[in-house]
Design goal:
The protein is built from eleven helices and twelve strands. The protein has 297 residues and is of the alpha/beta class.
Length: 297
């Protein structure tokens, strides 16, 4: 009888786990883009691209940068960042497109909000200028791998997983077994390579040596004021200051006309029918282990 109760408890815990993450994702994706809107001003156009939340996909941000890059009526772009980071590849892809726009001659100013750390800092590196508030949380230059271990839960509810593999590392990071010392060594080498890529990008963009960056890049976060003193950013200022800087860099007289993607809050009904279950599962329940440029909470 006790064993049956343990199984029921285990399934309830697992179900609660799935529901919890489902709610989190619905909240994260509770906004949808509907088109451009004129935000304010009557002068020449400056586009606002907003990155909010964990970076799971580069596509929404990259598509905006491509669009505003091609639009000759857009004279500059302000990249507003509120993100603790996320996927390595997605962060790198966003950075590359920001850099391409910058290198084309169209000014890009990165404006850091409350948090622009790890991958959120990485994507800012491609801009002409990085601006943060004195109290912005930034830095966290580094790589982290996080994945669950279901072994104790599986033992409790009497479930086992049979794994047949072609090589010793094929199932490294699976939640169905614990890591071996060899697994940890293999993952550390993978993480170290991603870390070196981050260090290289910071060194190239900030004009600092790798040795100087490594002293700062031990996972610590910094305030905007600290980041400025360490030359990780260019200047301190508000979102409005970033807009003015972008307009000045583009040679715009007076207040610019701000263009950004309009967003509206979706109803629970709309969320349910537009929620991408496949992407949710692939992002949060498969492809372990994942290494990320993500600030730890």
């Amino acid at each position: 009888m006790a064993k049956k109760q343990d199984k029921i408890l285990g399934f309830l815990i697992l179900g609660a786990f799935v529901i919890f993450f489902g709610i989190v994702i619905l909240l994260l994706f509770g906004l949808s883009s509907t088109g451009d809107m004129d935000f304010s001003g009557v002068g020449e156009k400056v586009a606002i691209v907003e990155l909010d939340g964990v970076i799971t996909s580069a596509r929404p941000i990259v598509s905006q940068f491509k669009r505003y890059h091609k639009d000759k009526s857009i004279k500059a772009i302000v990249f507003r960042i509120n993100s603790p980071g996320g996927g390595i590849a997605a962060s790198q892809e966003i950075y590359e497109h920001v850099r391409r726009v910058r290198d084309s001659g169209k000014p890009v100013v990165a404006s850091m909000g409350s948090v622009a750390a790890s991958g959120g800092y990485y994507v800012a590196l491609g801009a002409d200028s990085i601006m943060a508030n004195p109290g912005t949380t930034t830095g966290s230059i580094g790589v982290i791998a996080q994945f669950p271990n279901f072994t104790k839960l599986m033992e409790k509810i009497g479930i086992s997983m049979t794994i047949i593999k072609s090589g010793r590392y094929k199932d490294t990071g699976t939640p169905y077994r614990s890591l071996t010392p060899a697994d940890k060594q293999y993952l550390q080498a993978w993480i170290d390579d991603g870390y070196d890529q981050f260090i290289t990008a910071v060194s190239q963009e900030r004009g600092l040596t790798k040795q100087e960056i490594r002293r700062l890049a031990d996972g610590r976060v910094y305030s905007g004021q600290q980041a400025y003193s360490y030359a990780l950013i260019d200047t301190l200022g508000t979102f409005e200051d970033a807009i003015k800087l972008a307009a000045d860099m583009a040679g715009i007289d007076g207040d610019p006309r701000l263009i950004r993607l309009q967003r509206k809050k979706m109803t629970p009904f709309e969320l349910f029918f537009t929620f991408d279950l496949k992407e949710f599962v692939e992002t949060y329940f498969s492809a372990w282990p994942r290494i990320q440029y993500l600030m730890s909470f």
